[in-house]
Write a structure and sequence with these properties.
seven-stranded antiparallel β-sheet, binds zinc ion, binds (2R)-2-hydroxypentanedioic acid, Uridine Diphospho-n-acetylenolpyruvylglucosamine Reductase, domain 2, five-stranded antiparallel β-sheet, alpha+beta, Uridine Diphospho-n-acetylenolpyruvylglucosamine Reductase, domain 3, binds flavin-adenine dinucleotide
């Protein structure tokens, strides 16, 4: 038997073992069954897998991991498969097992006194939001993919979204986690403690680890008082600078009632209207840029709307806002949100974007956009930046679309060069090349640009400690 036959036999044996652990129906080996697990949401990456395995309990995950490690077969963890960085897609070798958490959908407990919810990692984010609401609480993580992304994926990617300004990122919303190590040992860190000073924060090591250290199987999350009033507006601004000054005015008038402050350039707004029939910019004229503003509070709706109106009127007096509309009811608020939430889909329809997910100190974001716009236009005249995002967090999705005169192939050939320009501008300002989408496979070659060698060395050492055989999500996050 040559080496290839030995590997084929070992994988065949592993698949039989996996069937014993989770049941044959939960080990997918047929191409048609595997297909949804092998490509990413953007349609940029496509891989192959020896099998897709779907354990239903933490113990089954542990047994699957022990078996994969014994067979030295790599594992790609997958939740809702909505990653924007190819993080959950296996490579084309077909050697890996995709471990999907989609059968682990149990809400384990809700504690109304401690204001926490304990869930399986495969629970869909929207299900957690609904469970919290039914119990009279609020779970604030909110993002466009909330109907399909999972709590495990949110944790592994340390997701952000549209309410970070007030409530923080996933890390800040989490009290405890449960994780299975590559060798199959289960770490039960499902503590619902707000204070715990007993050493290294292992929880935080797994949050943001993008499936490279182990499988997150459960989490204890924080709940918040449910807002009873919301006020939503859309305002026309001249540029990033005016938007930032507007942010200051809204904060001064509304304090931490400000929940969302989402920026979109006029080019981005025009693209959304061009690509998505059912949405429109709710102003008479297409503005140079727009901001979606949302306040929320435990108060009555009229008082909140009046407060927002006063803030916007003060901003108009300072010539920061040229025009604005405040939603008069839930339906109008929904229309404004639909505009914002349609950006990613509109981008996919517009063509293949070069995606960037940068953050810089908020005070430098206007200058970042000005210099990056200039630099990419100099490198490729006619390039179309589609810039939008969570301005108050210093996080912009600086997407680049091809000039109309350039073909997709020519644009793709220049993609690494254009990304380097954007990332150099980011790092020069001590920013981050991934604010919320993660490194995945999309940015893995860029890690050495922004991370100090010592930082990378420490990350590699931790990886070696927890995953000595290098089996967890190979090719993602850490450069080879
Ligand atoms: P997956 O895509 O399945 O996996 C993501 C990463 O986590 C992969 O590296 C995977 O290996 C790992 N992983 C998944 N589950 C586990 C687990 N249980 N244990 C260990 N590792 C695991 N992101 C934001 O932060 N903010 C946004 O505003 C936002 N908006 C989006 C809008 C759209 C339309 C789309 C398609 C995506 C958006 N995203 C956003 C990106 C994505 O939804 C988030 O990263 C989300 O947290 C991923 O969750 P998931 O369950 O789909 O994870
Ligand atoms: C958002 O903020 C998401 O809408 C997706 O993070 C961003 O598609 C993108 O680039
Ligand atoms: Zn975002």
């Amino acid at each position: 038997m040559d080496k290839r036959d030995v590997i084929v036999n070992a994988v065949r044996e592993l698949i039989e073992t996996l069937k014993d652990i989770v049941g044959a129906a939960n080990v997918l080996t047929e191409p048609v069954e595997q297909a949804p697990f092998l490509a990413d949401w953007l349609g940029k990456y496509r891989g192959e897998a020896a099998a897709v395995v779907r354990p239903g309990t933490t113990q089954e995950v542990a047994n699957v991991m022990a078996a994969c490690t014994a067979a030295r077969v790599p594992v790609v963890p997958q939740g809702g498969n909505t990653s924007m960085s190819g993080g959950a897609t296996p490579d084309p070798s077909g050697q890996a097992v995709v471990l999907s958490l989609q059968r682990m959908r149990r809400i384990r407990a809700l504690d109304p006194i401690g204001q926490t919810i304990a869930v399986d990692a495969g629970v869909i984010l929207a299900t957690v939001q609904s469970a919290a609401e039914e119990a009279g609480f609020f779970f604030p993580l909110s993002l466009g993919a909330e109907g399909s992304c999972t709590i495990g994926g949110n944790l592994a990617a340390n997701a952000g979204g549209v309410a970070v300004l007030r409530y923080g990122v996933m890390r800040e919303l989490t009290l405890g986690i449960e994780a299975v190590l590559p060798d199959g040992r289960i770490w039960n860190g499902m503590k619902a403690l707000r204070k715990d000073n007993t050493g290294y924060a292992l929880r935080d090591l797994f949050i943001g680890s993008e499936g490279t250290l182990g499988i997150i199987t459960g989490a204890v999350l924080k709940l918040f008082p449910r807002p009873t009033a919301r006020a939503t507006a859309f305002a026309a601004v001249a540029d990033v600078s005016s938007a930032l000054r507007l942010l200051g005015v809204i904060r001064a008038h509304c304090g931490d009632r400000l929940t969302a402050f989402e920026f979109m350039t006029g080019e981005t707004l025009a693209m959304i209207q061009r690509q998505i029939d059912s949405v429109r910019v709710p102003l008479e004229q297409m503005p140079p840029a727009g901001v979606l503003i949302e306040l929320s509070d435990i108060d009555d709706e009229t008082a909140l709307s009046t407060r927002l109106e006063r803030a916007l009127s003060a901003a108009m007096d300072e010539a920061l806002v040229a025009d604005a509309v405040i939603a008069q009811d839930k339906a109008q608020a929904g229309e404004i949100w639909r505009l914002r939430e349609s950006v990613s889909q509109a981008l996919v329809r517009e063509g293949r974007a070069i995606k960037h997910d940068i953050s810089v100190p908020v005070s430098e974001i206007a200058e970042f956009v000005a210099t990056a716009d200039q630099a990419v236009a100099a490198a490729m005249p006619g390039i179309r930046p589609m810039v939008f995002g969570h301005l108050g967090d210093g996080n912009l999705h600086y997407n680049l679309m091809r000039p109309l005169a350039v073909t997709d192939a020519e644009f793709a050939a220049q993609s690494a060069m254009l990304t380097r320009i954007v990332h150099d501008e980011t790092c020069r300002r001590h920013g981050s090349i991934s604010a919320e989408h993660g490194i995945g496979q999309l940015r893995v070659d860029e890690m050495t640009v922004c991370k100090a060698p010592l930082e990378l060395e420490l990350m590699q050492a931790l990886k070696q400690l927890l995953d000595p055989h290098g089996l967890m999500n190979p090719g993602k996050l850490l450069p080879a």
